[in-house]
Amino acid sequence: MDLRQLRYFVTVAEERSVTRAAARLHLTQPPLSAQIARLEHELGVPLLVRHRRGVDLTEAGRLLVEHARSVLADVDAAVESVRRTGQGRSGRLTLAFVPATAWSVLPGLLRGFRAVRPEVELRFLEGGSDAVAEHVRARRADLGLLHLPPGGAGAGPDLDVAVVRREPLVAVLPRELAARFGDRVDLADLADEPFLAPSRELAGGLAPHLLGACRLSGFEPVPRDVELVATVVALVGAGVGVSVLPASVAAVCGPDAVTRPLARHVPVVETGLLRRRSDAPTPAVQRFLRLALDTPEPDALGPAYARP
Protein backbone atom coordinates (compact mmCIF):
# COMPACT_ATOMS: atom_id res chain seq x y z
CA MET A 1 0.00 0.00 0.00
CA ASP A 2 1.38 3.43 -0.93
CA LEU A 3 0.19 7.01 -0.62
CA ARG A 4 -0.86 7.19 -4.24
CA GLN A 5 -3.22 4.25 -3.78
CA LEU A 6 -4.69 5.86 -0.66
CA ARG A 7 -5.31 9.14 -2.52
CA TYR A 8 -6.92 7.24 -5.39
CA PHE A 9 -9.14 5.29 -3.02
CA VAL A 10 -10.28 8.38 -1.08
CA THR A 11 -11.18 10.08 -4.37
CA VAL A 12 -13.22 7.08 -5.51
CA ALA A 13 -14.97 6.98 -2.11
CA GLU A 14 -15.82 10.69 -2.34
CA GLU A 15 -17.10 10.47 -5.91
CA ARG A 16 -18.91 7.14 -5.42
CA SER A 17 -17.86 6.40 -8.96
CA VAL A 18 -14.64 5.12 -10.56
CA THR A 19 -15.47 7.01 -13.75
CA ARG A 20 -15.93 10.37 -12.02
CA ALA A 21 -12.89 9.75 -9.79
CA ALA A 22 -10.76 9.02 -12.87
CA ALA A 23 -11.86 12.30 -14.46
CA ARG A 24 -11.06 14.20 -11.26
CA LEU A 25 -7.63 12.58 -11.06
CA HIS A 26 -6.97 13.13 -14.77
CA LEU A 27 -6.64 9.40 -15.35
CA THR A 28 -8.33 6.89 -17.54
CA GLN A 29 -10.61 4.41 -15.81
CA PRO A 30 -8.65 1.14 -16.36
CA PRO A 31 -5.44 2.12 -14.48
CA LEU A 32 -7.49 3.57 -11.62
CA SER A 33 -9.56 0.38 -11.35
CA ALA A 34 -6.32 -1.62 -11.40
CA GLN A 35 -4.86 0.38 -8.49
CA ILE A 36 -8.02 -0.11 -6.40
CA ALA A 37 -8.01 -3.84 -7.19
CA ARG A 38 -4.33 -4.09 -6.07
CA LEU A 39 -5.21 -2.31 -2.83
CA GLU A 40 -8.05 -4.74 -2.13
CA HIS A 41 -5.78 -7.69 -2.95
CA GLU A 42 -3.05 -6.41 -0.60
CA LEU A 43 -5.50 -5.89 2.26
CA GLY A 44 -7.31 -9.13 1.54
CA VAL A 45 -10.79 -7.60 1.90
CA PRO A 46 -13.26 -5.96 -0.52
CA LEU A 47 -13.43 -2.18 -0.13
CA LEU A 48 -16.08 -1.36 -2.71
CA VAL A 49 -19.39 -2.81 -3.83
CA ARG A 50 -19.66 -2.14 -7.57
CA HIS A 51 -22.97 -1.64 -9.35
CA ARG A 52 -24.31 0.08 -12.46
CA ARG A 53 -24.73 3.47 -10.76
CA GLY A 54 -21.20 3.49 -9.35
CA VAL A 55 -19.75 2.06 -6.13
CA ASP A 56 -20.59 1.88 -2.45
CA LEU A 57 -18.15 1.42 0.41
CA THR A 58 -18.01 -1.77 2.39
CA GLU A 59 -17.60 -1.56 6.16
CA ALA A 60 -13.86 -2.11 5.67
CA GLY A 61 -13.85 0.56 2.98
CA ARG A 62 -15.47 3.13 5.30
CA LEU A 63 -12.84 2.42 7.98
CA LEU A 64 -10.02 2.72 5.45
CA VAL A 65 -11.31 6.11 4.26
CA GLU A 66 -11.16 7.46 7.83
CA HIS A 67 -7.59 6.23 8.35
CA ALA A 68 -6.49 7.28 4.86
CA ARG A 69 -7.72 10.84 5.31
CA SER A 70 -5.85 11.12 8.60
CA VAL A 71 -2.64 9.70 7.10
CA LEU A 72 -2.81 11.93 4.03
CA ALA A 73 -3.47 15.02 6.14
CA ASP A 74 -0.43 14.23 8.31
CA VAL A 75 1.74 13.66 5.24
CA ASP A 76 0.58 16.90 3.62
CA ALA A 77 1.26 18.82 6.84
CA ALA A 78 4.73 17.28 7.14
CA VAL A 79 5.55 18.10 3.52
CA GLU A 80 4.44 21.71 3.95
CA SER A 81 6.37 22.07 7.22
CA VAL A 82 9.55 20.68 5.67
CA ARG A 83 9.13 22.84 2.59
CA ARG A 84 8.61 26.00 4.65
CA THR A 85 11.64 25.27 6.80
CA GLY A 86 13.78 24.47 3.77
CA GLN A 87 12.74 27.73 2.12
CA GLY A 88 13.42 29.73 5.28
CA ARG A 89 9.73 30.57 5.75
CA SER A 90 9.62 28.91 9.17
CA GLY A 91 12.03 27.54 11.72
CA ARG A 92 13.99 29.39 14.39
CA LEU A 93 16.69 32.05 14.45
CA THR A 94 18.57 33.07 17.60
CA LEU A 95 20.29 36.45 17.54
CA ALA A 96 22.77 37.70 20.14
CA PHE A 97 23.34 41.46 20.33
CA VAL A 98 24.97 44.18 22.41
CA PRO A 99 22.53 46.62 24.07
CA ALA A 100 23.76 49.62 22.06
CA THR A 101 22.41 48.09 18.84
CA ALA A 102 18.90 47.62 20.26
CA TRP A 103 17.84 51.16 19.35
CA SER A 104 20.03 51.69 16.28
CA VAL A 105 20.73 48.82 13.88
CA LEU A 106 18.63 46.00 15.29
CA PRO A 107 15.07 47.43 14.91
CA GLY A 108 15.41 47.99 11.17
CA LEU A 109 16.85 44.52 10.63
CA LEU A 110 14.04 42.90 12.59
CA ARG A 111 11.29 44.85 10.83
CA GLY A 112 12.67 43.87 7.44
CA PHE A 113 13.01 40.22 8.41
CA ARG A 114 9.57 39.97 10.00
CA ALA A 115 8.03 41.48 6.88
CA VAL A 116 9.27 38.63 4.69
CA ARG A 117 9.54 35.76 7.21
CA PRO A 118 6.78 36.33 9.80
CA GLU A 119 6.56 32.67 10.77
CA VAL A 120 10.22 32.25 11.76
CA GLU A 121 10.53 32.13 15.55
CA LEU A 122 13.02 34.75 16.74
CA ARG A 123 14.96 34.33 19.97
CA PHE A 124 17.35 36.86 21.51
CA LEU A 125 20.40 36.87 23.75
CA GLU A 126 21.64 40.21 25.08
CA GLY A 127 25.14 40.80 26.40
CA GLY A 128 28.51 42.44 25.95
CA SER A 129 30.71 42.04 22.90
CA ASP A 130 32.66 39.10 24.32
CA ALA A 131 29.44 37.39 25.38
CA VAL A 132 27.89 37.89 21.93
CA ALA A 133 30.91 36.32 20.24
CA GLU A 134 30.89 33.43 22.70
CA HIS A 135 27.15 32.82 22.16
CA VAL A 136 27.79 32.46 18.42
CA ARG A 137 30.94 30.40 18.93
CA ALA A 138 29.13 28.00 21.29
CA ARG A 139 26.12 27.71 18.93
CA ARG A 140 23.75 29.27 21.44
CA ALA A 141 23.11 31.93 18.79
CA ASP A 142 23.04 31.72 15.00
CA LEU A 143 24.22 35.31 14.53
CA GLY A 144 25.74 38.04 16.69
CA LEU A 145 25.32 41.80 16.25
CA LEU A 146 27.88 44.18 17.74
CA HIS A 147 29.94 47.32 17.15
CA LEU A 148 33.38 46.58 15.79
CA PRO A 149 36.48 48.21 17.30
CA PRO A 150 38.53 50.66 15.18
CA GLY A 151 40.19 48.91 12.30
CA GLY A 152 37.43 46.31 12.08
CA ALA A 153 39.33 43.69 14.06
CA GLY A 154 37.89 40.21 13.64
CA ALA A 155 36.36 38.10 16.39
CA GLY A 156 38.70 35.16 15.86
CA PRO A 157 39.55 32.63 13.15
CA ASP A 158 36.38 30.62 13.76
CA LEU A 159 33.95 33.51 13.16
CA ASP A 160 33.16 35.49 10.01
CA VAL A 161 32.35 39.18 10.31
CA ALA A 162 30.02 41.01 7.91
CA VAL A 163 29.71 44.78 8.10
CA VAL A 164 26.02 45.73 8.00
CA ARG A 165 26.24 49.43 8.85
CA ARG A 166 28.73 52.28 8.89
CA GLU A 167 27.97 55.57 10.61
CA PRO A 168 29.95 58.64 11.67
CA LEU A 169 30.85 59.60 15.20
CA VAL A 170 29.23 62.68 16.73
CA ALA A 171 29.79 64.73 19.86
CA VAL A 172 27.05 64.29 22.48
CA LEU A 173 26.71 67.45 24.55
CA PRO A 174 24.44 69.02 27.15
CA ARG A 175 22.11 71.42 25.38
CA GLU A 176 23.55 74.48 27.12
CA LEU A 177 27.11 73.57 26.17
CA ALA A 178 26.14 72.80 22.57
CA ALA A 179 24.75 76.35 22.26
CA ARG A 180 28.31 77.70 22.48
CA PHE A 181 29.35 75.91 19.28
CA GLY A 182 28.31 76.21 15.66
CA ASP A 183 27.09 73.42 13.44
CA ARG A 184 30.23 71.35 14.04
CA VAL A 185 32.36 70.67 17.10
CA ASP A 186 36.14 70.39 17.30
CA LEU A 187 36.83 67.87 20.03
CA ALA A 188 39.94 69.82 20.95
CA ASP A 189 37.60 72.48 22.32
CA LEU A 190 36.20 69.87 24.72
CA ALA A 191 39.57 68.68 26.02
CA ASP A 192 38.88 70.03 29.52
CA GLU A 193 35.41 68.46 29.75
CA PRO A 194 34.83 65.14 31.56
CA PHE A 195 34.23 62.40 28.98
CA LEU A 196 31.76 59.58 29.55
CA ALA A 197 32.23 56.29 27.69
CA PRO A 198 30.07 53.16 27.55
CA SER A 199 31.79 50.21 29.19
CA ARG A 200 34.04 48.07 27.03
CA GLU A 201 32.32 44.97 28.39
CA LEU A 202 28.85 45.91 27.17
CA ALA A 203 29.52 48.28 24.27
CA GLY A 204 32.61 46.62 22.87
CA GLY A 205 34.15 48.76 20.14
CA LEU A 206 32.56 52.10 21.09
CA ALA A 207 34.96 53.12 23.87
CA PRO A 208 38.08 52.70 21.65
CA HIS A 209 36.38 54.87 19.02
CA LEU A 210 35.93 57.66 21.57
CA LEU A 211 39.60 57.44 22.63
CA GLY A 212 40.79 57.38 19.02
CA ALA A 213 38.70 60.42 18.04
CA CYS A 214 40.08 62.44 20.97
CA ARG A 215 43.66 61.43 20.20
CA LEU A 216 43.25 62.51 16.58
CA SER A 217 42.11 65.88 17.97
CA GLY A 218 45.34 66.21 19.93
CA PHE A 219 44.54 65.22 23.50
CA GLU A 220 44.24 62.16 25.73
CA PRO A 221 40.89 61.91 27.52
CA VAL A 222 40.39 60.16 30.83
CA PRO A 223 36.91 58.73 30.28
CA ARG A 224 34.58 57.64 33.05
CA ASP A 225 33.07 54.27 32.24
CA VAL A 226 29.27 53.99 32.29
CA GLU A 227 27.45 50.69 31.80
CA LEU A 228 25.06 51.54 28.95
CA VAL A 229 24.95 54.00 26.07
CA ALA A 230 21.49 55.17 27.18
CA THR A 231 22.94 55.96 30.62
CA VAL A 232 25.78 57.93 29.01
CA VAL A 233 23.20 60.05 27.18
CA ALA A 234 21.15 60.60 30.34
CA LEU A 235 24.24 61.74 32.27
CA VAL A 236 25.30 64.04 29.44
CA GLY A 237 21.83 65.59 29.49
CA ALA A 238 22.24 66.14 33.22
CA GLY A 239 25.45 68.09 32.60
CA VAL A 240 27.80 65.48 34.09
CA GLY A 241 30.04 65.35 31.00
CA VAL A 242 30.25 64.88 27.23
CA SER A 243 30.73 61.89 24.98
CA VAL A 244 31.50 60.71 21.45
CA LEU A 245 29.11 58.11 20.04
CA PRO A 246 27.68 56.85 16.72
CA ALA A 247 25.30 59.29 15.00
CA SER A 248 22.29 57.03 15.59
CA VAL A 249 22.46 57.96 19.29
CA ALA A 250 20.36 61.01 18.36
CA ALA A 251 17.33 58.68 18.51
CA VAL A 252 17.63 58.42 22.32
CA CYS A 253 18.98 61.85 23.22
CA GLY A 254 15.77 63.42 24.46
CA PRO A 255 15.46 67.17 25.18
CA ASP A 256 18.56 67.70 27.36
CA ALA A 257 21.32 66.17 25.24
CA VAL A 258 22.11 67.03 21.62
CA THR A 259 24.47 65.69 18.98
CA ARG A 260 26.85 67.68 16.80
CA PRO A 261 28.95 66.51 13.83
CA LEU A 262 32.70 66.56 14.37
CA ALA A 263 34.81 69.20 12.68
CA ARG A 264 37.73 66.80 12.11
CA HIS A 265 37.60 63.56 10.17
CA VAL A 266 37.69 60.42 12.32
CA PRO A 267 37.07 56.77 11.38
CA VAL A 268 33.45 55.67 11.16
CA VAL A 269 31.87 53.09 13.46
CA GLU A 270 31.12 49.74 11.86
CA THR A 271 28.39 47.40 13.09
CA GLY A 272 28.93 43.78 12.17
CA LEU A 273 27.18 40.43 12.16
CA LEU A 274 29.09 37.40 13.38
CA ARG A 275 28.49 33.84 12.28
CA ARG A 276 30.34 30.56 12.62
CA ARG A 277 32.66 30.04 9.69
CA SER A 278 32.44 26.24 9.74
CA ASP A 279 28.63 25.95 9.77
CA ALA A 280 26.41 26.04 6.71
CA PRO A 281 23.73 28.66 7.49
CA THR A 282 20.11 27.58 7.76
CA PRO A 283 17.66 29.04 5.23
CA ALA A 284 16.37 31.47 7.88
CA VAL A 285 19.91 32.65 8.63
CA GLN A 286 20.62 32.99 4.92
CA ARG A 287 17.57 35.20 4.50
CA PHE A 288 18.50 37.38 7.48
CA LEU A 289 22.01 37.81 6.11
CA ARG A 290 20.75 38.74 2.67
CA LEU A 291 18.53 41.43 4.16
CA ALA A 292 21.25 42.71 6.47
CA LEU A 293 23.75 42.92 3.62
CA ASP A 294 21.36 44.64 1.21
CA THR A 295 23.73 47.58 1.18
CA PRO A 296 26.34 49.00 -1.21
CA GLU A 297 28.98 48.43 1.47
CA PRO A 298 31.31 45.43 0.98
CA ASP A 299 30.88 42.39 3.16
CA ALA A 300 33.15 39.65 4.37
CA LEU A 301 30.83 36.69 3.80
CA GLY A 302 31.39 36.38 0.08
CA PRO A 303 29.19 36.57 -3.03
CA ALA A 304 26.68 34.00 -1.80
CA TYR A 305 25.11 36.70 0.37
CA ALA A 306 25.71 39.73 -1.82
CA ARG A 307 22.85 41.81 -3.13
CA PRO A 308 21.78 40.71 -6.67
TrEMBL record:
Question: Which Gene3D superfamilies does the UniProt entry name for this protein?
Answer: Periplasmic binding protein-like II (3.40.190.10), Winged helix-like DNA-binding domain superfamily/Winged helix DNA-binding domain (1.10.10.10)
Q: Recite the UniProt keywords alphabetically.
A: DNA-binding, Transcription, Transcription regulation
Sequence ranges assigned to domain HTH lysR-type in this UniProt record: 1-58
Q: Which CDD domains match?
A: PBP2_LTTR_aromatics_like
Write one Pfam family the protein is assigned to: HTH_1
PANTHER family, per the entry: HTH-TYPE TRANSCRIPTIONAL REGULATOR CYNR (PTHR30346:SF28), TRANSCRIPTIONAL DUAL REGULATOR HCAR-RELATED (PTHR30346)
Its name, as the record gives it, is LysR family transcriptional regulator
Q: Which organism is it from?
A: Pseudonocardia petroleophila
